[in-house]
Amino acid sequence: MTESLADNSSGEESGLRETLRSKLARILKGRTLAQCIADGPDNIGQLRLLAALMVVLGHSNLGGGGRWPYDPVHLVLPQAQVHAVGLMFFFMISGLLITYSFLRQPNLLRFLRARVLRLWPALFICVFAWAFLLGPALSELPLRDYFSFTRSDSPYLYIWRNAKLFNLQNVLPGLFKSNPLPIQVNTPLWSIPVEAQMYLWVAAVGVLRLLRLPWLTSIAIVLLFGALIFWPMLHGENPTLDWIVRGFFGAGAIACLLRDRVPISSGVMVTLLLACLFASRTTHALPFFWIAVGYFVLWFAYVPQLPKIPFGLDASYGVYLWGWPVQQSLVHLTGVDEPLLLFAMAAPIVLALGAASWLCIERPALKLKDVRFFRARSGTLASGV
User: Which one of 20, 172, 216, 281 is CB 3.0 to 4.6 Å from 135, fit for a cystine?
Assistant: First the structure.
């Protein structure tokens, strides 16, 4: 009996060790990106919200100007800032999701309609609110001067230029003129035209059916952005942030195209973080850092088991749109110049505005992306999904 119990105990311990080894191997080896997408769920909503808050955090120096000492990314890598990494997160996610969207439903008109509904309604409401409601309330000018048609910085031009995503206007009459970082109403809007441009690139590649050639298209993306980003670095020039985030969009597209061969593994993530850490004080830090950031997006999206955002709220776009002008307004009204205090004051406000933007503008608009209006055979106008 004693020997039998000992044998059973030994067998259980052996089984437990085997189970632990199996789980550890699975964690380190991971799954392919295709398996992660198919299995679900994901943390993309949480990652987008994190990226938006990182942008707000990075802009929390508006009260005093200059680089502030609390940037967690800059402390690790002096060549980078937290708001730039937040933008990299956004564009990497977009490259993955937008490419996958066209692959799933390669319908050009539906694709373009969905992209318009995702970007423009919330953007238009934001610029309209600042041009005609909040702008005149906070402006140092009387309403008569503020609404003058002859001004080069008029609110009418502000709406027109920003809504059409060309020749953006970042000033409104008499607004934020006395702030430490004066007159800039909503600087982060520069990235919205870049995002829209990348949507058009995906549409063009999709129409040409190049997405059916994943390896060829991926190589072309690598060569294109390698030349635009790394070639200037070889000549001692730093690439601009707008081209860097385009490169992250391209990286997301490559991950989508080669998803059957892209491993999502904690082992790979740890290896890249260590490589990035060791290279952080060398002249080759940025490429290692970019690779680690791009892979972190994929890892974070599918590996950790995070709690879901309540009610499916996707406040990230609204947080991004409203973050800068809310921070400028707080500086204008309160004179706060401490970065962490400004972030603590702004974060709940922009989260509330982001949630309102999602519930009242973005989600209702996105419901229209699959609605079709056509004439039925009976001659009546019908709509369907």
Answer: 172
